[in-house]
């Protein structure tokens, strides 16, 4: 049975600041957004079922244990709190798993999101910030990728995100529910306070996998494919710091509420680094010469994924602050804390 960590019987609190419901606020990106929202004076309500998030990360607002699939719970929350906007960070994100179990992805990422949107409409909440993905582009036709380039996702994960993007267009036209969709490239790094960071189980992202090898948590890190038509034969990827993502979300929220306009933005650094370059930079920063294995390509991996982020820079006045050195350095500081039993100074 789902429970609330707050007393739903008490009267609504008067609020000077806007209240934001952050669905998935105990996860990696969601927790960083919650921290920044709180620092900038927003009232934060965190809804998370803790299937992939951590209770210890949900400390930047009032925490509610529950799921966006629960329409009754959503009704209670929206009745109790005067929510001004909703941010969504509770999708499943593993591409390989989505291919093996698409039903899981379409139910959680699409159907459950519709439940949330309908609850918002019922309570006249008209602002929604959605975490989408660069996977909506599929195999890109050009680099860097612009927001209006063709959308051709090649796996259920990407398709589920693009379905929601299309639903949001229809909900705007029909119900005037305004949304911002952020298409992430490769989120990485950690908050410099080291209170929160990346802690996926199992881990599939490149930088934490590299740092696991540096910590001797795993025997090696693998390079999937060394025969791409790139400068060193390995894939080129665009990495963006999680706090730069958080900053974009708040700027997007403020744009959404001031302009009352649905829109979509790429969130990437605009720079590309090869897998081999990331590994070498990690060796330099960690001062550990860990083992690297070269193996064959994974199906569906494009040679290049780099964002054109000019639209977010121009419209949202967003400027990424962290370069690759800063991303890996903050990730390494966090990783040593996370894996302290392995990472001895």
From TrEMBL:
<keyword id="KW-0520">NAD</keyword>
<dbReference type="InterPro" id="IPR036291">
    <property type="entry name" value="NAD(P)-bd_dom_sf"/>
</dbReference>
<keyword id="KW-0119">Carbohydrate metabolism</keyword>
<dbReference type="GO" id="GO:0003978">
    <property type="term" value="F:UDP-glucose 4-epimerase activity"/>
</dbReference>
<comment type="similarity">
    <text>Belongs to the NAD(P)-dependent epimerase/dehydratase family.</text>
</comment>
<comment type="subunit">
    <text>Homodimer.</text>
</comment>
<keyword id="KW-0413">Isomerase</keyword>
<dbReference type="Pfam" id="PF01370">
    <property type="entry name" value="Epimerase"/>
</dbReference>
<protein>
    <recommendedName>
        <fullName>UDP-glucose 4-epimerase</fullName>
        <ecNumber>5.1.3.2</ecNumber>
    </recommendedName>
</protein>
<dbReference type="InterPro" id="IPR005886">
    <property type="entry name" value="UDP_G4E"/>
</dbReference>
<dbReference type="InterPro" id="IPR001509">
    <property type="entry name" value="Epimerase_deHydtase"/>
</dbReference>
<comment type="pathway">
    <text>Carbohydrate metabolism; galactose metabolism.</text>
</comment>
<feature type="domain" description="NAD-dependent epimerase/dehydratase">
    <location>
        <begin position="20"/>
        <end position="268"/>
    </location>
</feature>
<dbReference type="GO" id="GO:0006012">
    <property type="term" value="P:galactose metabolic process"/>
</dbReference>
């Amino acid at each position: 049975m789902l429970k609330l960590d707050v007393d739903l019987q008490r009267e609504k609190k008067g609020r000077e600041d806007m209240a934001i419901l952050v669905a998935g606020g105990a996860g990696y990106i969601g927790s960083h957004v919650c921290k920044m929202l709180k620092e900038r004076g927003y009232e934060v309500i965190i809804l998370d079922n803790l299937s992939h998030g951590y209770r210890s990360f949900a400390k930047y607002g009032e925490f509610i244990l529950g799921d966006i699939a629960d329409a009754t719970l959503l009704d209670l929350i929206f009745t109790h709190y005067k929510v001004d906007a909703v941010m969504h960070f509770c999708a499943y994100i593993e591409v390989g798993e989505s291919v093996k179990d698409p039903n899981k992805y379409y139910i959680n990422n699409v159907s459950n999101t519709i439940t949330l949107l309908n609850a918002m409409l019922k309570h006249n909440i008209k602002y929604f910030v959605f975490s989408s993905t660069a996977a909506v582009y599929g195999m890109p036709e050009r680099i860097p990728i612009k927001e209006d380039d063709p959308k051709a996702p090649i796996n259920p994960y990407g398709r589920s995100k693009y379905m929601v993007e299309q639903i949001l267009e229809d909900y705007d036209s029909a119900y005037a529910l305004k949304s911002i969709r952020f298409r992430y490239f490769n989120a990485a790094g950690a908050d410099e306070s080291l209170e929160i960071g990346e802690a996926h189980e199992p881990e599939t992202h490149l930088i934490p996998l590299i740092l696991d090898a540096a910590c001797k948590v795993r025997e090696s890190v693998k390079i999937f494919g060394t025969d791409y038509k790139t400068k060193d034969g390995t894939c080129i990827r665009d990495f963006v710091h999680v706090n730069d993502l958080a900053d974009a979300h708040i700027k997007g929220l403020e744009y959404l509420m001031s302009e009352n306009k649905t829109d979509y933005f790429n969130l990437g650094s605009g720079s590309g680094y090869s897998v081999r370059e990331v590994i070498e930079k990690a060796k330099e920063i960690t001062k550990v010469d860990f083992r690297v294995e070269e193996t064959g390509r994974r199906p569906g991996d494009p040679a290049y994924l780099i964002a054109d982020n000019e639209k977010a820079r121009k419209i949202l006045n967003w400027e990424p602050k962290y370069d690759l050195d800063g991303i890996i350095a903050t990730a390494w500081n966090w990783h040593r804390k996370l894996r302290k039993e392995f990472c001895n100074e």
